[in-house]
Amino acid sequence: MKSLTVSDADFLALSGLKHFCFCRRRWALVHIEQQWQENALTVSGHLMHERVHDENFTESRGSVLLSRGMPVRSQKLRITGACDLVELHRDENGIAICGRSGTWRVFPVEYKHGEPDERGADAMQLCAQALCLEEMLAVEIPEGAIYYGKIHRRVSVAFRAELRQQTIQKIEEMHRLFARGCTPKAKWTKACKSCSLVEVCQPLLTKRVSASVYVQRMLEEDGS
């Protein structure tokens, strides 16, 4: 019997989960149509991640090991990416790490340029990283943290069952949309003003077209 394998083409970028939660059309423009434009917010975010990401960086701070830019993937969820920072805390209930004595607790940390996200997209992105790490290391990770540059502090994130399920559902939706290769129609919201793809997306154009269709229908109904 042939064994089922998953090719790299079947994997989606873990980082796309934030785009998907922000706007499905934005995600599709980037990950299906391969379109991208920078603005001040995205540039600032890239600069922060460039400082954080260094796959060759490992630092020991007492009982904590710091590993930056750690590549992660999940065969089960078919996602791949990199963690900004994974902290390994010495813990008697932790796991063994190759090349290190003792046992360690895994604690992922994501870096964001702005302020805490009320919609929960950042928490889901961090949770997806934890799910990858759990699968790779055969360990349970109960919590992590997000560092927000605007408020200069960390916000703790507990990977509870509800958050895990929401994250998995969003990833499954991403796969379904990607398989269809279909970009959702534009829908104007206040968030469009700060989106780097607003010129590509043209949400106001769609809004105007919809309004004209509405007026035309009203005139036709009046004349009938």
Task: Please name the defining characteristics of this protein.
7 helices; seven-stranded mixed sheet; Lambda Exonuclease, Chain A; 224 residues; alpha/beta
3D architecture notes:
This protein is 40% helix and 25% strand. With 224 residues, it is α/β, with parallel strands linked by helices. The protein folds into two domains: 8-183, Lambda Exonuclease, Chain A (Alpha-Beta Complex); 185-224, no CATH class. Strands 1, 2, 3, 4, 5, 6 and 7 form a seven-stranded mixed β-sheet that branches. Strand 6 (143-148) and strand 7 form a beta hairpin. The longest helix is centred in the C-terminal third of the chain and has 21 residues, at 203-223. The radius of gyration is 21 Å and the shape is globular.
Number of helices: 7
CATH topology of the largest domain: Lambda Exonuclease, Chain A
End-to-end Cα distance, whole Å, is 66 Å
CATH architectural category of the largest domain: Alpha-Beta Complex
What is the domain tally?
2
* Quaternary class: single chain
Uncertain ranges: 38-49, 208-215
User: Looking at the structure, what is the overall shape?
Assistant: globular
Question: Structural class from helices and strands?
Answer: alpha/beta
Q: Indicate the mean pLDDT.
A: 80
Proportion of helical residues = 40-55%
